[in-house]
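assembly run, all chains below
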Amino acid sequence: MVYFDTNQKTVRSWTKRQDEKAIKMSKVEHLAKNRAIPTDRIVEALELLISPGDRVVLEGNNQKQASFLSASLAEVDPGKVNQLHMIMSSISRPEHLDIFERGVAEKIDFSYAGPQSLRVAQMIEDGMLKMGEIHTYLELYGRLFVDLIPNVVLVAADKADINGNLYTGPNTEETPTIIEAAAFKDGIVIVQVNELVEELPRVDIPGSWVDFIVEAQKPYQLEALFTRDPKHITELQILMGMMAIRGIYEKHNVQSLNHGIGFNTAAIELLLPTYGEQLGLKGKICKNWVLNPHPTLIPAIESGWVESIHCFGGEVGMEQYVAARPDVFFTGRDGSLRSNRTLSQVAGQYATDMFIGSSLQIDQFGNSSAVTSGRLSGFGGAPNMGHDPRGRRHSTPAWLDLVTSDDQLARGRKLVVQMVETHQAGNVPVFVESLDAISVARTAGLSTTPVMIYGDDVTHVVTEEGIAYLYKAQSLEERRHALAAIAGVTPIGMKHDTKRTEKLRQDGLVALPEDLGIRRTDAKRTLLAAKSVEDLVEWSGGLYNPPDKFRSCY
Amino acid sequence: MVYFDTNQKTVRSWTKRQDEKAIKMSKVEHLAKNRAIPTDRIVEALELLISPGDRVVLEGNNQKQASFLSASLAEVDPGKVNQLHMIMSSISRPEHLDIFERGVAEKIDFSYAGPQSLRVAQMIEDGMLKMGEIHTYLELYGRLFVDLIPNVVLVAADKADINGNLYTGPNTEETPTIIEAAAFKDGIVIVQVNELVEELPRVDIPGSWVDFIVEAQKPYQLEALFTRDPKHITELQILMGMMAIRGIYEKHNVQSLNHGIGFNTAAIELLLPTYGEQLGLKGKICKNWVLNPHPTLIPAIESGWVESIHCFGGEVGMEQYVAARPDVFFTGRDGSLRSNRTLSQVAGQYATDMFIGSSLQIDQFGNSSAVTSGRLSGFGGAPNMGHDPRGRRHSTPAWLDLVTSDDQLARGRKLVVQMVETHQAGNVPVFVESLDAISVARTAGLSTTPVMIYGDDVTHVVTEEGIAYLYKAQSLEERRHALAAIAGVTPIGMKHDTKRTEKLRQDGLVALPEDLGIRRTDAKRTLLAAKSVEDLVEWSGGLYNPPDKFRSCY
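ok done. output:
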């Protein structure tokens, strides 16, 4: 309430959030014992703790999901809880959208909507979902402390003790960051846990940051998103992997790096102990990694290639292996992985030589997007790691190797590599005149086109045809020609000019396999350090324990 | 030890770091009771816990210093502890360099060396200090998880309990990030605390992350770095402040922002409740802030301008005021501020419309540096917040307002504003042909020139002459002309072409005070909402408690 004192100076309450929280807390006193809400009364509790219009963070990234809490939120009475402004790293589960259909929630800010991207686009068109903005993970976390400060956060942990201390185990991920935004701004922190225990293996988040604990009906959902079965790696991917190792990793002396998800980078991981070893590169490149515990990295780790790995999150089945390799992974006193998506994104942005990833569409200037017709899939972490961080000031050999000017103020550059086959499955061309994202932006009423990685941030593009060294291009036109030279029989590639390509090869803007000393016929599956999930298990000495869906493959 | 088993497969230890830590821990068993090292035996303990060549993080940023631990490190026997690779946010105290002179440490990676910048440059020239790299804070933190993983960290907290749980109070700053890098990679975490207590007001860092606690002889050093006495704000600074509010904040609709340290931005803070109010801007701009608790922001907060503030660290004397304004500041259950330098840097980079700061030198293209002849001062957080974060994907009105193209893939831009008088004290020109940093880089053997903010990241420059809207410049030449138009009688300004300046004013690339409807004669100290530290105390209702050195001024 605002009122005026006798001097006409405004007098106001400075504890509005505290007061509102106190009222909410008193409403659930009869429900909660200490901090614990009984499992079967969570819907009732949510109805008392969440007010109409509240900003609510619901945890769910591409791996861990607060699935019990999201299912419960979908059951609240829209007459009591409505018009919520949801903030979610990932829209992954059906109920994440059901809450909008039911009128509980109204607006969304998010990062990634892979599995639900079609429905998201449709619901926006139907006016059932009010779009906030699409973010890369790190900017979404930043906004939790600036203009998207939450009223309530719904998150997931493995275990809690009676004092509310939390154990997140290998999947710490973004839980501490989300909780911090609410706990220190008089928001309400509700945590679903797999179990309540007497004593925790270690404390990942202090109990004084937590308001309520609820034991979930079943453990939170966890996706094995970073597992690629080597069985499905093709010889084309092996060829591209060899080119990348020779023409990028070795050429620029890449020491620290991030690999995106996918068969292309899985191929590279499995070529290091074979092809990389033949080239004498062990101990010289690829030493410090920022990535999830990819099972396909096991052979490289076992062969002594890898000095360290910092992880965004965990990976199903890798728990025991990681715990047995503490010199490589970040682990806690209990032995298990400590991941941290926020810090890993900071490291991936600022402290690595290279980001390498894939995309669904690339235009003639190298702009790329994973948003294709009718799908609003978002970005995840790619934009954060896939750009040249202009705040970076330290140099490394790879970073300096990309200096193209002798200006006294010239600076190095981060390697941002796109690795794609010229066509997707079904013979759909990856290289296109214009991104679908442009029309998606129009339909969804976005202020800007959802580009995942901008062409002027991309330094290299690798296809089965060759490598385009885009960082050397002096003009947009030259960039276009270099891309066309490796774009195969796509709308862009068909425009390429043979003479021009020759010149670009001479100038080092384009390299074909033969320019790198690679014979296409050498790209065989026999080069893979592991050819199946079974091989990975063997490399791990039985420590890797693949989920059933991958087991069924061998 | 590496050996081969019968199948010629390499067998190696994967617990080298764990084993080394266990050995070190056993060596101090006789010294430490539980986790507590007696105050008078810390030097002995450091000699046993730190091995030659170790990577050691010593906490010390521009505010909080682990001063007891740094003084103790300077006392260890260089025969026992030597060749250390130090990692420090800030080189602030004399003993930070004494350890190099004494042969305890050899190499340094850092962010900022304000008070010691002259000595740093000299010691590098004399070969007494081996330079690593200069960083912005966030990239240094990132490297702690990639290629600068520490063996030992020496940090500071307010209080600890017997289980090692830590209370950092208002100055959480970067302590959790530093500790995380060591605690989860089998490094050793040593914390100096002001006192050991039975029960903590709140837990900022869990005890299971901490190895040793030592009660310091006296509380850690804490600098009142963000306090500017309004008494010293000049009318020129007020003029510049009015121009910034009118020609940048209002024009672009700036909602979220960071202010650097300095009298220029302090002037703006004190003009919001007067000049800003006259313009009817309250509730329309400057709502969400990322900055330390600047005392000069008190009048704007009290007048209802400020919705939220997230802080890098605390500020001496602001403790009670902050605790009484929880709707604005992030605070814990104990009532006191929760700062977090890492998260605040993320927010300042990605989630704000604008960064505004100052510099000592700006060249003809807008490149700026705080490194001047003979001084290797480093960067702090400026490069991180003073650049266009190309990973950003969400839009805000201010960000969109800087779009200058109608390309379908055009994106917005962060406002990066430099606000400088054309001359420093002693009539030294700020605008120069070439940055001193170029020769400093040569002398110190740096791989790149230590530029603080690059010209192509700067969107606006404000001087007492006017504003240059550099983001509108279509070429380097146009950028140079726009800068010259507002550079006064400096080497750059004297080259300006009057006709050209007229054209730039018409095209909106340059604005003089009259173009913004500001009369120079209106820029009076009477416009400041507070004219002294005493006024600030009054605005705060007696809650602000300035340090003695500022009290002595009134």
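The radius of gyration of chain B is 25 Å.

Residues 60 and 222 of chain B are 10 Å apart (CA to CA).

not gonna interpret more than that til we talk
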